[in-house]
Structure prediction request, 144 residues.
Amino acid sequence: MTINTRDFGEQEIAEDKIINFPNGIYAFEDQHRFVMLSPLGNDVFPAWLQSLDNENLCFIVFDPEQLVKDYSVTADEESAAAIEKNRKTSIRYLSLAVVPEEYKNTTVNLKSPIMINADKMLAAQVIASEDYPIKFPIFKKEGA
Prediction:
């Protein structure tokens, strides 16, 4: 299928790549269908989480497991039910980024990741009970 995007114009996507958010994303509860676009290559981050229903709505995302060793989140019951999570479910995480004008100050939200049931392409944004920061810098500061 062909979609229109804010940053990449028309894009061809496979229907099996559509990620469904039964409850939407915080502050965008009316948006339910997204696709991940990886202009640098499959599973190369950053990636864009593009709405299929609003070409102007997209989020830059990172894989938190590439940023934090042993990253894992306990989902609340409602979120786990929304994505049909069970012990055998293959879970994937995405963290929403805030990219300021000075891109070296980019942060990701590790406290409220997107949890994806990779088998069923169902997703929910969750609030981690684990002690992760809301603004985790992805670049090291000089001299650190």
Observations:
- The chain has a mean pLDDT of 91.
- Residues 25 and 125 are 6 Å apart (CA to CA).
- The two ends are 46 Å apart (CA to CA).
